[in-house]
Amino acid sequence: MAAKPKLWYFCGRGRMESIRWLLAAAGVEFEEEFLETREQYEKLQKDGRLLFGQVPLVEIDGMELTQTRAILSYLATKYNLHGKDLKETVRINMYAEGTLDLMMMVAVAAFKPPEEKEESLALVVKKAKTQHFPVFEKILKDHGEDFLVGNKFSWADIQLLEAILMVEELDASVLSDFPLLKEFKTRISNIPTIKKFLQPGSQRKPPPDSHYVEIVRNVLQL
Amino acid sequence: MAGKPKLHYFNGRGRMECIRWLLAAAGVEFEEKFIEQPEDLDKLKSDGSLMFQQVPLVEIDGMKLVQTRAILNYVATKYNLYGKDMKERALIDMYSEGVADLGDMIMLLPLCPPDEKDAKIAQIKETTTNRYLPAFEKVLKSHGQDYLVGNKLSKADIHLVELLYYVEELDPSLLANFPLLKGLKTRVSNLPAVKKFLQPGSQRKPPMDEKNLEEAKRIFRIK
Hints:
Structural class of chain A: alpha+beta
Strand order of the largest sheet of chain B: 2-1-3-4
Strand content of chain A: 5-15%
Shape of chain B: globular
CATH architecture of the domain at 86-197 in chain A: Up-down Bundle
GO molecular function, one term (chain B): glutathione transferase activity
Domain GST N-terminal (chain B): 3-83
Number of strands of chain A: 4
Structural class of chain B: alpha+beta
Catalytic activity (chain B): RX + glutathione = an S-substituted glutathione + a halide anion + H(+)
CATH class of the domain at 86-197 in chain A: Mainly Alpha
Oligomer: heterodimer
Radius of gyration of chain B: 18 Å
Protein name (chain B): Glutathione S-transferase
Domain GST C-terminal (chain B): 85-208
Largest sheet of chain B: 4 strands, mixed
Distance between the termini of chain A: 40 Å
Strand order of the largest sheet of chain A: 2-1-3-4
């Protein structure tokens, strides 16, 4: 019997959150080991478990996978969330790369000095409103289907919901000009596995605060 | 009949070079339309060709693909350079991402402010010899095979060898203690399609010089 996937990361969003979302949406139970001290991190490195000395690390199917996108791609394929053929897969990848870029900007902003952080986050909201969300609104409008690709729930839908919620935390009105995205948000949020993940007490992590930033700086010696 | 893939980018390496390498190594002929003025980029944006208003853009098989990784993964799958199953693909992805991380640092070096440049170069050299090259050398050593994954050429080998050329350009001595990587570099460079691409007159782009940097800044409106 296969063991549950095990996630090694800090107790916060960072580069692991999209992986948590994907597993949760696929209905896959997973375990987490939280990095809190430098010693834990050094031990992982010394034991040779981190290919490039970095987390995220996901133990799954007998592999020790690092590199966020490698992990996401593996999981998406494994749980049938990566399209039915190459042309669908490439569209899912394109959409997912776009939303991942946006969310990484938010993750990185947490580590900037206060003024730069404000600027960065404002830029995220601007990009979301002018670059990303209009594109996804149009995709939904053009095919009139419930999901972004191939009329079937995929990794691209999970990423987009995650990105919408993240940007809404920065600006609650961000979807005001995007009626189809509002419907999309409701529809995807109501998928049972996702609904469960959105409830308090799930493994979903809160936005980064100063405590989280301090732990990460400490462990990574930034 | 399918036309050749068409690459839209400025006439330099940037984020398109790894795509050029992969297509070339796969023996695929491709066309290039160079963005020469900011207005050319504006036009691509306004005619809806660029999903997220960014290049690279590759027109292939009736699609307008953006996002470097999406493009690379499509090409790799199409030309059988992506392993035989999911697990091999995961390893190929992991290795390719590591290459991309170091590759990005080297690629962005010309944009580094002059007073920070020496420190940045030192940092890159340190991470090259302490983090990245040892990781790949260890992979090759662990199985003793000719290629990184599954005893078969994959996108991971092509990306890594491309990177090794850039590491060499930065400082040839950096490769000194990595015999298996040197072997991989030679082996892959001698594959007929790669050998051809490495010759003068191919579509491979030279290192960025002052003129090329100014051009890129102008086109992409970077200050």
